[in-house]
Design brief:
mainly alpha, single chain, 3-stranded antiparallel β-sheet, globular, 138 residues, 9% strand, 3 strands
Length: 138
């Protein structure tokens, strides 16, 4: 079931990091693991995958919604899987002075700096825009 998949994906992540430690980073101290850029976000993405509708189990999500989310996710181009797993969050209030000003490159404008997608980073008296690559939410 879904629980087996969640356990398997965690074990796979741990095994990959362990294999890197043994085969590529054996010279570092026992309590330290220096990862290459390509592996630094792997644990974050694995944790995000576990929370996605496609892989959640329980009565809070119907099976047809789970299948729809899985099909949507599997059909995405690689460039959109990152934002789907870890959405970008833009603070909309207060805005910096440069926000909305043209960058001089095509029709691009300066965007507000993103913040970490975590409830601890959100304030009740602010407005945010979340972009997961397929939808925008206020």
């Amino acid at each position: 079931g879904n629980g087996d998949f969640k356990d398997k994906i965690i074990r796979s992540c741990v095994n990959m990091l362990h294999a890197y430690r043994v085969n590529c980073a054996s010279m570092t101290s026992a309590g330290q693991l220096i990862l290459p850029e390509s592996l630094k976000l792997l644990p974050l993405y694995v944790g995000s995958i576990r929370k996605m509708a496609a892989f959640r189990s329980g009565s809070d999500i119907r099976s047809d919604d789970r299948v729809t989310a899985l099909i949507h996710m599997l059909g995405l181009p690689m460039a959109l899987t990152g934002p789907l797993l870890y959405p970008r969050v833009f603070p909309l209030w207060p805005l910096t002075d440069m926000t909305g000003i043209p960058t001089g490159i095509d029709d691009n404008v300066h965007l507000p700096a993103t913040i970490a997608c975590a409830t601890a980073k959100l304030c009740a008296d602010r407005m945010y825009l979340m972009d997961n690559g397929s939808s925008l939410r206020l």
